[in-house]
Design a protein that fits this description.
By secondary structure, the chain is an alpha/beta fold. The chain has one domain. The chain contains 17 helices and six strands.
Length: 366
């Protein structure tokens, strides 16, 4: 009997130790979600070039901007629910466009630069304005399928999507003035936006850190020019190798006059970080829908339906959580940057925040 009891207590003790060990180990295990349709998401172990060393950030779920209950779409919103959200977005856009104090940030002419951003699908009378770093690759695939080059979005090679000579997507700028006017007044028009600061982080990572499509001019031409002008201490002999820091990028974007001079030098490559207003001229062109990256799971199927193409093509599968706003990531990237530089950056993108209903990032500004 005593031996049995002893074995019983030994077994309980062993189980207790196992539980304690598992609890201890779990403290150091974190999982990363998939980001950017296949890339790894930013995790708490990520570092930002040029940022000051900060205490480790505890893992937390990505946060969305606070919405009023009436503005929060249901998991599967009805057509009427989604149309109400769309109407509110368009009403806000129209109101901000009429705000004279923001006119310099919201109004741009319908220039060739804007027309170059708008892809045309004549077969289904659709115009799509490209806003890089907001999942545009997937919408290009949708248009390529509609134009008949491929049967499904899954069949389209990535190199074809980004080769504007081969993807079969004409730009509005390639048409005559009369043809442009006709399409702007009669076609279904849409584009997608996301939180402006999170978009800038995505552009910085994609072009200056990862550069998955091997576009060497970002590292060898653009980055050194920005470093030379905006990094407080640098060595001219080693600019490309040192790599662009996010702080350098923020200073460049927030310097109104200096940036304009450099942008003329950089040419078309600036499309990845110029404002939505500059890309799509939403105060001059009446778009039927402005979708939001943060609610893309709800927006995408309804955009297809509103355009009359939901029976012809499907939007690519969206990995769970990929479109959520991640405040923790934003705080981390801006953690080593001065309030003055952040405020200058906000001044530059203030029009986008207001036009599309994104809350001011007071947690960074104050």
């Amino acid at each position: 009997m005593m031996i049995t009891m002893r074995h019983h207590w030994l077994l309980l003790g062993a189980c207790g130790w196992v539980l304690l060990i598992l609890m201890f180990v779990s403290k150091f295990i974190s999982f990363r979600a998939v980001d950017d349709y296949g890339e790894r998401a930013w995790g708490q172990s990520g570092t930002v070039p040029g940022a000051k060393v900060v205490k480790p950030i505890p893992a937390s779920s990505p946060e969305k901007p606070a919405l009023k209950p009436s503005d929060q779409p249901s998991l599967v919103p009805t057509v009427a629910d989604w149309q109400l959200v769309t109407d509110k977005r368009n009403e806000l856009l129209s109101t901000v466009c009429q705000n004279s104090s923001l006119r310099n940030l919201t109004h741009v002419s319908i220039s060739k630069f804007v027309l170059d951003r708008i892809f045309v699908c004549d077969k289904h009378k659709i115009l799509f304005c490209q806003t890089p770093k907001v999942g545009n690759t997937q919408w290009k695939k949708v248009l390529i399928v509609l134009n008949g080059a491929f049967s499904t979005v899954e069949e389209i090679p990535e190199n074809v999507v980004h080769d504007h000579e081969k993807n079969g997507l004409p730009r509005l700028s390639s048409l005559t003035p009369q043809e442009i006017t006709l399409r702007l007044s009669t076609y279904f028009k849409f584009f997608i936006v996301r939180d402006p600061f999170e978009r800038l982080i995505s552009a910085f990572k994609d072009k200056f850190v990862k550069n998955p499509r091997f576009e060497p001019w970002y590292k060898h031409d653009i980055a050194p020019a920005i470093i030379r002008k905006y990094r407080k201490s640098h060595r001219d002999s080693n600019l490309a190798a040192s790599g662009l820091h996010f702080e350098d990028f923020v200073r460049y974007l927030g310097d109104t006059e200096g940036r304009r001079r450099m942008d003329r030098q950089f040419g078309e490559h600036i499309i990845h970080w110029v404002t939505y207003a500059e890309l799509c001229a939403p105060c001059k062109i009446h778009y039927n829908v402005v979708g939001h990256h943060e609610t893309l799971e709800q927006d995408a199927p309804h955009i297809l339906k509103a355009a009359g193409i939901d029976q012809l093509v499907s939007y690519p599968t969206i990995p769970p959580g990929i479109t959520r706003y991640n405040r923790t990531k934003v705080e981390h990237y801006f953690s080593g940057i001065s309030k003055r530089d952040i405020r200058r950056l906000y001044t530059r993108y203030q029009g986008d925040f207001h036009l599309f209903g994104y809350p001011s990032p007071d947690f960074l500004l104050n």
